[in-house]
Every structure is written in structure tokens, then in C-alpha cells.
Design brief:
With 162 residues, the chain is of the alpha+beta class. The chain has one domain: Beta-Lactamase, CATH 3.30.450.150. 51% of the residues lie in helices and 19% in strands. The chain contains six helices and five strands. A five-stranded mixed beta sheet has the order 1-4-5-2-3. The chain is globular. The two termini are 16 Å apart.
Length: 162
């Protein structure tokens, strides 16, 4: 599964990302979650600047805590929180056992994905909390795919094959 997760990070990159993009991506995620009846909290940041945050009915402050812990993992390792956790699982251990990081501050659970600018690297995060970790991750990836494909269509460039 790790190669698939690495491929996602290579493929799901932006040419630019701004406040309007955060709003559009965030509202796309809210729409997907509502359609499916998911109780999730969604957070989008550019660096330390929180540009979008929305908690659907059925969430709690615990989701905000999970978001902060997942974001710390992405910022520290530069990869999705699910990829970081999977890397440890592939080695037959866990992030909690071997990272030597405080589990109250860091969570290598799925749901936080780096906002990567092509040619620059990670500049922010998009995070979902409320579902099982793989489902959190998949929801973010699906939204990024839809968003980036729609941006490509707006520019008149064909979307990439999956």
C-alpha cells in the first residue's frame, strides 16, 4: 500500500493554492461528507494560517484534537499522516512505539494530507477527522482528485489519468 500512498502525493499537487482554493476545497469536502452522512470535521491550512474549518453535526472537540495531532505529523515528516503510519506498519511496528514522539501531540492516523506545490513542496494541510483512519484518508484524496481535475478543466488542460 505504501507505493500507492506515495503515488498519491506525487499526483495530487497544486500549481498554486490560495484562500479561494481553500474555500472551494473545503466546501467540496463538506458537500461530500453531507451527501454520505459523515460526521467529520474538516480543516485546511496554508502554513500556520487556518483558512477553512468546519465541523458537521455529530462531531466534537475531540475531532479538533485529532486534527492538530495529524497536522503535526504531516508538518514533521512532509507526508500524509496515513503514509507515515503505514511506513511504520510496513516495518512491523507502530508509530507510537518507534517514533519516540508524544502520542498526545502526534497521531500518524489517516486524514491529513499535505498541500504540495509543484516545484516547492508541502505548504499546508487538508485534514478530515471523524471516520476510521483509512476512510478519513480516502475522503481527502477523493476531494483532492475532484478539485484538481476541476481546476485542470477550468484551465482547458486535460486531467491526468488515474
Amino acid at each position: 500500500m505504501t507505493p500507492e500512498l506515495e503515488e498519491q502525493e506525487e499526483r495530487l499537487q497544486f500549481d498554486s493554492f490560495d484562500h479561494d482554493d481553500a474555500w472551494a476545497l473545503g466546501t467540496l469536502l463538506v458537500g461530500l461528507a453531507r451527501e454520505r452522512g459523515h460526521a467529520v470535521t474538516i480543516d485546511i491550512r496554508l502554513g500556520d494560517h487556518q483558512l477553512f474549518h468546519y465541523a458537521l453535526h455529530g462531531t466534537s472537540a475531540d475531532n479538533d484534537d485529532w486534527i492538530e495531532r495529524k497536522i503535526r505529523v504531516v508538518r514533521r515528516f512532509g507526508h500524509s499522516s496515513y503514509l507515515v503510519g503505514q511506513t511504520y506498519r510496513d516495518r512491523g511496528t507502530t508509530f507510537e512505539e518507534k517514533s519516540h514522539l508524544d502520542a498526545t501531540l502526534y497521531a500518524a492516523h489517516g486524514g491529513c494530507f499535505p498541500i504540495i506545490l509543484r516545484g516547492t513542496g508541502p505548504v499546508g494541510t487538508v485534514t478530515v477527522s471523524g471516520l476510521p483512519q483509512l476512510d478519513d484518508h480516502r475522503l481527502v484524496v477523493e476531494a483532492l482528485e475532484l478539485f484538481l481535475n476541476s481546476k485542470g478543466a477550468e484551465r482547458g488542460t486535460p486531467s491526468r489519468e488515474r
